[in-house]
Amino acid sequence: MNKKTIKDIDVYDKKVLVRVDFNVPVIDGKITDDNRIVEALPTINYLLEKGAAVILMSHLGRPEGKFDPKYSLKVVANRLQELLPKTNVIMANDVVGKDAKNKAKNLKMGEVLLLENLRFDAREEENDKEFCKQLADLAEVYVNDAFGTSHRKHSSTYGVAKLLPNAIGFLIEKELNIIVGTINNPKRPFVGILGGSKVKDKIGIIDSLLDSVDTLIIGGGMAYTFLYALGYKIGKSLLDETNIEEAKKLMQKADEKGVKFLLPIDFIETSSIDDTLNYKLTKDQNIDDNLMGVDIGKKTIKLFTKAIKKAKTVIWNGPVGVFEKKEFAVGTYSIAKALTKVKGTTIIGGGDSASAVINMGLANKMTHISTGGGASLKLFEGKILPGVDVIDNI
Ligand code: AMP
């Protein structure tokens, strides 16, 4: 990689503004998964050890440009203080206002300041020049370690980097090395698994994965558009009518490239995603009229598991069923289990599939669970992340 990392810059006696991804799940005022905070610690600790003062900034949820106590980062500051017991962790009551400016000015080397939720200011998502300057004025060096947000061209992930000496942190470096390194040089057979609901979001990824994988497994709501394109009956299942032709083209490309394109061959069908009482297994690849497919069936689990177990490299993004309902989570959990049997590299591309793996207690059986769903999908697609692109080359 040719981008500057924090090891390439001088931070001694400097105030370093670090974009982290502390967008953690908070339920009833409690953090239910602090992984993203824990993953930011190596960068924070390194900067503190090298004699810097650290100013952290992040978003949390979607407060839509205005202050909303529900999305305050105070709960994160408290957790961070627990994780850094020897360090003084200070919380600012605003983003670039009086309090943040004051606390940044008075911050001592070895201390940590966390700014309030960046998205309390609408200018964050607009990559606004003035807002970028106000952020940059707080510090002398900028570090991006927010992998989960680095596919966004926002003030804190993009614009501010242009105003200060800059580098990427250890988390972004690790994610790039593992994901890009694996995709560019996979051990074969290389299997990609894509699920989730929206075909339109994944067309680009399918198209580029077809250039590198040996087998592509499609599950979840997006499988039905492909099945419909092949002439199967899909009942009330999800259908992306605008992408039926695209689905045909992708399957043709798979054929031409000699890539095995695996679609489900049986399903769990029910009347709606909320009907968890009257579901049944289909006999074949067709869904009854007035019913919808909500999970893959037993034969499909066998088919997919067989392909996965033979792989030397697997990348996975997206559940293969409505896994939020335990009745329709069997397929997704079976995929997760199959991945633990792979003798090779397994990469989970964040989001729902990461939650499924973590909920099953299988996290330590995977090579890598990415902290960013959208960002890792962009890497699967072979794209460069704006928040990395903007960082100076070595
Ligand atoms: P995405 O945001 O595109 O990654 O989709 C994730 C969502 O897809 C999850 O909330 C799943 O419940 C949903 N999903 C997976 N399979 C199906 C299905 N067969 N029908 C409807 N939704 C599904």
Q: What gap, in angstroms, lies between the N and C termini?
A: 9 Å
Order of helices and strands: EEEHEHEHEHEEHEHEHHEEEEHEHEHEHH
CATH architecture of the largest domain: 3-Layer(aba) Sandwich
Radius of gyration: 23 Å
Strand order within the widest sheet?
5-6-4-1-7-8
Each distinct ligand: adenosine monophosphate
Strand content: 15-25%
**Helical segment count:** 13
Category from helices, strands and their pairing: alpha/beta
What's the rounded overall pLDDT mean?
Answer: 96
**CATH top level assignment of the largest domain:** Alpha Beta
Low-confidence segments, given as residue ranges, are none
Task: Identify the overall geometry.
Answer: elongated
CATH fold assignment of the largest domain: Rossmann fold
Q: Could you name the CATH homologous superfamily of the largest domain?
A: Phosphoglycerate kinase, N-terminal domain
Most strands sheet:
6 strands, parallel
Tally of structural domains: 2
Helix content: 25-40%
SS elements, strand count = 17
